[in-house]
Amino acid sequence: MASFKFPKANPESLRAMAYAVRNELSGGIAVDDNRFSLRQIETSLRHMAVRVQKEEDYANELLGIMPSPARSQVFACIPLTDSTDFDCKCTHSGARLRKAVLPKMYQWRGQSFLSYVGATSMELSFIPVQSIFELNALAGEVEKPLYFSTGSALYVLLPSKYVLICQVTVIGIPEDPTATSGSCFDVWSEDWPVPAHIKAITKDRVLQSLGNNLLATVPQRDIRNNANHGNQFVTTTTP
Fold first, then answer.
1. CB 57 within 8 A of CB 67
2. Which of these ranges, 55-64, 93-102, 222-231, has the smallest mean pLDDT?
3. Residues 6 or more apart in contact with residue 170 via CB below 8 angstroms
4. Is residue 45 assigned to a domain?
5. Residue partners of 113: CB distance under 8 A and separation at least 6
6. Three-state secondary structure call for residue 200
7. Does the residue 46 lie in any domain?
8. Of 172, 206, 225, at which residue does a domain stop?
9. Whose CA, among 65, 150, 170, 180, lies 20 to 30 Å from 36?
10. Bigger pLDDT: 55 or 182?
11. Domain region containing 136
12. What does the alpha-carbon distance between residue 128 and residue 134 come to, in Å, rounded to a whole number?
């Protein structure tokens, strides 16, 4: 039988927490016939962490507490493409409306939480507006690029002197902290960028959720027929 060698998990990584959850579900005994795969547990952890963070953010928003800047991430060199989503005044003012696609961003009072949108050199920041209507009203009145966001779309109005800009850099808080700028998040080696108190709540809730599912299933069998005495994973079925 082939022997697979996996990299050592960073103690602060998502994979390390998934291991911890699976081991607790199996009573601290190492088994290979687990009901839940590591990827399934990781998916549960990611989704639950977003839910827990939203609950905290909602409570903080009611108190007027803004999210921590430490949660911000840099999304560099996002391509700008021509947009035909709107019939805009920019077509009459010599400006061009461009569009960039962002990860799903954290919403603060109905708007994506963005602290910087501008040139990739970081020397030119664009002016934020609230809607396409405000953008149209200011078209031709200001010299710097304007932008507004809706959903995962970022719309940028480029005055004629900036029409050659084809990429932007964005700094903001993504809804999923594992969202990255064009690269895959490494669940093995990278720190899971979630606050420690959110991790603790997330782990407890996932253990509770998966544990309840586990108790409702039939007893686990040694499918591979390789368990030693005392190393069997047995569950009970609730009446």
1. yes
2. 222-231
3. 74, 75, 78, 100, 102, 114, 116, 117, 154
4. yes
5. 67, 105, 106, 107, 172, 173
6. helix
7. yes
8. 172
9. 180
10. 55
11. 73-172
12. 10
167 and 207 in a single domain? The answer is no
Tokens of 235: 């569950």
Q: Secondary structure of 212-238 in the HEC alphabet?
A: HHHHCCCCCCCCCCCCCCCCCCCCCCC
Q: Report the pLDDT value the prediction gives residue 238, as an integer from 0 to 100.
A: 45
Give how many domains the chain has, as a whole number.
Answer: 2
- Token pair of 127, please? 């002016």
Q: Which two tokens stand for residue 87?
A: 């019939």
What is the layout of strands, in order, in the sheet containing 167-172? 73-79, 167-172, 114-118
d(CA 70, CA 191): 14
Could you report the per-residue pLDDT of 6-16, keeping only the tens digit for each? 677 888 888 99
pTM for the whole structure: 0.69
**Nearest residue to 101 (alpha-carbon basis) of 124, 128, 79, 120:** 79
Are 42 and 118 contained in the same domain?
Answer: no
